[in-house]
Design a protein that fits this description.
single chain; alpha+beta; Cytidine Deaminase, domain 2; 2 domains; six-stranded mixed β-sheet; 16 helices; disordered N terminus; DUF4192 domain-containing protein; DUF4192
């Protein structure tokens, strides 16, 4: 996904419907997608997706709808658009569209009076139509052609910005896994690195422990440097056929897996995400040495969460960090990747990609339900909290 500094305004349903798959990163199916439109110029804010079955559920659906309304209001929505992705024409009567009509009814009951008269669109496998449009010239039987959504200004903008749309949520959130040979190499490297750390802890050799942490940060910088050079070469038309993971040695990925298990190293990596803040940059060395760790973490989280000082992610830096962390997760032991997955969730949330943030967070908590940083990210997601830069007064949001 492109950086969240892009500003998108709703210039009509066609542009909005073209934008939603780019925002999610995949083409939704059996889904209800809510789009927050912020005053005064209709800027697109929060985009929230739920399973259609959940919103339509007779017992729990009304509460799901009320929760969504609360999230959109917290995002500053003046109004909202509901897009139903299902192969059903809501204008037809009878049982075939009963689920979809129940979802719309639950949303309407919750949103009416809070977000104005609800606007609802339906996107099927072949067309799109307004849920309540009786005009055959406007919304013919079967809906308007989906080809209309492929030639929009917003679509062209997103493609030029490097955005892509996966065929499904699973494809959008999947992490490539190394082959068995390279995973064994990574595992052995991680085990050797952990043994060195355990030896330093057992003997209380603080100098050796500080050196081990510093080596972990060096490994991170080496990995991000390799990825950055690979991307520059690919953009120049050189060495563009190999994937990012192919330029990262398995041994290096194993060392990073072990290094990220150390909170000081993880926090130093977290500090490195925030570009353009000299104070945070100066804290990196102190964090990796085990000094001022809590101060450093609090400062960087403020740089992400606090609307007064919140910074948007720098696209190149964030993309590079994401590529390395995904490679670490794809090379490491299954069920032991809470640090890398949590950092990926935080990066995705910071960039406004709720789909990936939710997926990465679920995987991190499955690996370690008590992982503290993951629990902090979970709290932000459950509260519908937007990153600080998106809530900063006067700052545009897409």
């Amino acid at each position: 996904m492109p950086g969240m500094t892009t500003t998108i305004r709703a210039r009509g349903p066609r542009e909005l419907l073209a934008y939603v798959p780019f925002r999610l990163g995949y083409r939704p199916q059996d889904s209800a997608v809510l789009v927050s439109l912020r005053a005064p110029r209709g800027r697109v804010g929060l985009v929230a997706r739920v399973d259609l079955d959940d919103l339509a559920d007779l017992e729990h659906g009304p509460q799901v709808a009320r929760t969504l309304v609360a999230h959109l209001c917290s995002d500053g929505a003046a109004r909202a658009v509901l897009v139903v992705y299902a192969d059903a024409d809501l204008r037809a009567g009878g049982a075939p569209a009963a689920r979809e009509r129940a979802a719309v009814e639950h949303w309407t009951d919750a949103a009416e009076g809070v977000l104005g008269t609800p606007e609802v669109w339906v996107v099927t496998a072949t067309g799109y139509h307004a849920a309540d449009c009786p005009d055959a010239a406007c919304c013919p039987a079967g809906g308007r052609s989906l080809e209309d959504l492929e030639s929009t200004e917003v679509g062209a903008h997103m493609v030029l910005a490097g955005a892509t749309v996966a065929t499904s949520r699973a494809h959008a959130t999947s992490i490539p896994v190394l082959d068995a040979v390279d995973r064994r190499r990574a595992s052995r490297a991680a085990a050797r690195s952990r043994a060195r750390r355990e030896a330093a802890l057992a003997t209380q050799d603080l100098e050796a422990l500080a050196a081990w942490r510093a080596e972990g940060l060096v490994a991170w910088r080496e990995a991000t440097g390799l990825v950055e050079r690979h991307r520059r070469a690919a953009e120049a038309g050189v060495d563009g056929t190999r994937g990012v993971a192919a330029v990262l040695p398995a041994v290096l990925l194993g060392r990073l897996e072990a290094a990220l298990e150390s909170v000081p190293v993880r926090d130093a990596v977290l500090l490195s995400f925030v570009a353009g803040n000299e104070e945070l940059a100066s804290l990196t060395a102190a964090a990796v040495a085990g000094e001022r760790v809590e101060t450093g973490t609090a400062s960087v989280l403020a740089g992400i969460v606090d609307p007064e000082v919140g910074l948007p992610p720098e696209p190149g830096r964030a993309r590079c960090a994401r590529d390395v962390l995904e490679a670490v997760a794809g090379a490491g032991r299954r069920g032991a990747q809470a640090p890398a997955l949590t950092l990926l969730a935080l990066l995705a949330w910071w960039d406004g990609d709720g789909v990936v943030a939710t997926d990465r967070l679920a995987a991190a908590l499955a690996a370690d339900r008590g992982y503290r940083l993951a629990l902090l990210v979970e709290s932000a997601l459950e509260a519908g909290l937007a990153p600080g830069w998106a809530r900063s007064p006067g700052r545009g949001a897409r």
